[in-house]
Amino acid sequence: MSSALLDVASVSKSFGGVEANRDISLSVPEGKIIGLIGPNGSGKTTLFNSIVGYHPVDSGSIRFNDKEITQLLVPDIARLGMLRTFQQTRIYGRMSCIQNLQISMPLAKHNLKSVFRPVQRDDMEQIEEMLAFVGLHAKRHLLAGDLSFGQQKLLEFAMALIAEPKLLLLDEPTAGINPTLINGLIDRLKVANKELGITLFIIEHNMRVIMNIADHIYCLAHGKLLAQGTPEQIQNDQTVIDAYLGAH
Amino acid sequence: MKPYHYVLLFLLCVIAPFILPDYRTQLALLWVMIVLALSWDILGGQMGYNSFGNIIFFGVGMYACAVFQRDSGLSYYPALLIGMGLGGLFAMLTAALLGNALLGMRGHYFAIGTLGLGVAAGELAGGWDYIGAGSGMTTPLFPGELANRDVFFYFLFFAWALVGFLGLRWLYRGRFGLAINAIRDDEDKAESMGIHTTRYKVTAWIFSALFLGVIGGGAGNLIGFIDPKDVAFSGPTFGVWMILMAITGGKGRLWGPVVGAVVFHFTQELFWTLLLGWQRVALGLLIILIVLFFPEGILGWIAQRFPQRAAAKAQLDDKSKQAS
Amino acid sequence: MFDNFMILFDAPVFSVDLLINGMLIGAIFMLAAYGMALVWGVMDVINVAQGEYVMVGGYVTLVVVKLGLNPLLGIPIAALVLYLLGWLMYRTVVYRVVDKDVFTSLLATFGIAILLAQLTNQIFGADVRSIDTELGTWFFLDDMVTVAVIKVIAFALALFLGVVLWLFLKKSRTGQAIRATAQNARAARILGIDTHRIYAITYSLSAALCGAAGSLVVMAWSIHPYIGLPFTVRSFMVVIVAGLGNLPGVVLAGLGLGAAENFAGFILGTEFQIAFVFILMIVVLVWRNRSLRRKRKYLK
Fold it and tell me: Counting C-beta atoms within 10 Å of the first and last residue's C-beta, which end of chain B has fewer, N or C?
């Protein structure tokens, strides 16, 4: 029995008097797509931030790939193979799409020579393929800041993929995307998982999307883990339904 | 610009001191200014990290070279050239030392941290007898006629400016250029993608220091004397000029600081005679005006006015980065 | 240098003198730092010209004395003049950079700093100036500890002004509006607070504080056109050590810095005192950053 790729054990985080996460335990097995849902304010993004090293956790432990990462900083965790996308979508605004991907490509070795490494030809092929994969090939020379919000989201997604992470945390990947394009995004997520072998951990509000692709779902409410299970189980879980309806 | 434009420009630079013999010193200084502006732009423009203290490298280079020239016992030319090299070396060491301290944080802390570097260095240099304390040092006399001296320094500085320019052009094309631009655009994002931001930042500052240190050594010899407060570590002159030139020409663009240096240097000659002491007051005002109303500088303004040319150029840049 | 250090051990009473006199000027640092923290916390602008406002306050007081008025009147007058200057600077320059990235505001206020320093240099010359208030000196401990009376008055006034400002922020409507804006500008705007006006008031208040501080400086110590930068750096250091919104911390850090600087000036020699300040700041920055990183926090 192999331990999960990501193991979150009893993690708690408060801001001032507000308990954003209380005693959360979950695990993300390698190769799967895991969903994280819950009404607004249930602490999903806070949990993500705790995992990637954005802020300290009050208590609990987080293990990634069998390594204790609870005290590690953001860049160290990123270099271990865990990346995340942001809810507000962050890209390098004054660089072209191609350049955004170029700088996101992983290095074989992080040494002095790599700092000055010029761009290789095969890299460019890979970049163009990735841009085509997310549908941005025509816009590849445009500055990332000039793209629409939805296009930037796709670019951010492409940047994360080309970095070849082991685990990718996606914070609401379909938010703000034109509904007609969401199917395309679902397909791409599946491809990233099945063919590129990237484990996905996704915060989603769009139930159709998450029920469609997740292997297992965790539901947060009021900072605590409310329920977990397969999409069918979650859909039929009364506590989950109440949490969402109650939140309105 | 087509290749033959570059050739013409190069030829113009080569014959300039001979067609304008009265302005040789100013022309030599122009190359100093170009290097100042280009060096500042590595951090300020390409990386988005304002450095108020780059002047420290200029002064370190100046002193290191002068001390070597004084103590080495070598004849003029070898002493000068090795001295300039030492100037660059010491400047780089300073950058490495300070950089690891100051560049582990976000840019505004770095900026404030560099605010006092020039003044502190000036004070420390002014109290160190080995390098002449408050009286400073004088650099050795040029072994030859005055006319030849200016021509020599012109070409020496031109050569270094060319090395700097081409070196930066090569640097900006590779991963280094991409990384520092990414740091400029969104440092948090760069960190969260696993980029070794501190390493790149320190490396950038070390390059800045190298160019400044070498030219500082030479500048000290052109000026003839080194004063800790008014020449070597002079914030209100060189320190402010390098920022102003880079922004005026267009920060973050390779030719920006060059254009800015040319414009500034030539207009400065005019204003000096008109304004005298008020020139420094005008500098403060200029910084405010340019930062508020003209932050993209000359080249940035041109790019906005002619967006098609800018887009075509962007495509060309992407293609040229592919060519390895 | 080493000799001076040993004197402190041979005659500890010197340490008392250095400590007291250091803390007295530390109160001035506290005042300037409070203003900087205010502007930083409310508008996210690091005012590089903070020290220059102190400097100008001193020169305003010089003018007041030249006009034949009592120097102590210089304090409110300098505060008023600097309030107006701050207002002017906000309305022309700072308001344009409040919403932009921090580098733009750093450069803009840097420009203001240069402008003011060089302008003062042109008008008044570079000489060191001071005002002799003829208020005498107190002597303690066998005349080994000397404390100029005006310094004690300056200390008391600085603390008083700090308390007044704190009360203003806590109790008055404008003060509360300022604090609300500092916490969440957008929410404040929605609630009807004119954030533009609040920013102007905040910036002007900060400048006024510096003006009063400068007035105290010229009376109890001395000024020249280039004291601005060290004051800015000191304010920044105090804010970093104390953290935004921590007034007791600002007081302690200010006094502590004053004392530390005085000791350094004695041990290293006054010609290195400014260098010490700047090097200390680098040390403070690095120390703060390292200690935060260990706890997985970041210096924002």
Answer: N
Domains observed in chain A: 6-90+165-247 (3.40.50.300)
| Predicted confidence band of residue B324 (pLDDT cuts 50, 70, 90) | very low
Question: A60 CA to chain B: closest CA distance, Å?
Answer: 22
Number of domains in chain C: 1
pTM of the model: 0.91
Task: Please check whether residue C260 lies inside any domain of the structure.
Answer: yes
Q: What is the pLDDT of residue B312?
A: 67
Residue in B253, B268, B228 with CA at minimum distance from that of residue B32: B268
| Residue C219 zone, left/alpha/beta (φ > 0; ψ -120 to 50; rest) | alpha
Residue B275, chain C, CB below 8 Å: the answer is no
pLDDT bin (cut points 50, 70, 90) of residue B323 is very low
ipTM beyond cut 0.85: yes
Q: What is the CATH number of the domain that holds C21?
A: 1.10.3470
Alpha helices (runs of H) in A163-206, residue ranges in sequence order: 179-194
CATH number for the domain formed by residue range(s) B23-322: 1.10.3470
Name the amino acid, one letter, at B97: L
Mutate to test the interface with A, among B168, B193, B251 (most CBs of A within 10 A): B193
Distance, CA of C28 to CA of C300 (rounded, Å): 26
Tokens of C280: 């200390």
Neighbours of chain C (3+ CB pairs under 8 A): A, B
Alpha carbon of A5: minimum distance to chain B alpha carbons (Å): 19
**Residues from chain A contacting residue C296 (CB–CB below 8 Å):** 53, 55-56, 71-73
Note whether B175 contacts A90, CB cutoff 8 Å.
no
pLDDT band at residue A108 under the 50/70/90 scheme: low
In this structure, are strands A82-84 and A167-171 parallel, antiparallel, or unpaired? parallel
A34, A218 Cβ separation under 8 angstroms: yes
Query: Per-residue pLDDT tens for A157-182?
Result: 999 999 999 999 999 998 888 888 88
Interface of A with C in 154-213 (CB under 8 A): none
Q: pLDDT, tens digit, for every residue of C154-163?
A: 999 999 999 9
Confidence of residue C290 (pLDDT cuts 50, 70, 90): confident
The mean per-residue pLDDT over the stretch A204-224 comes to 91
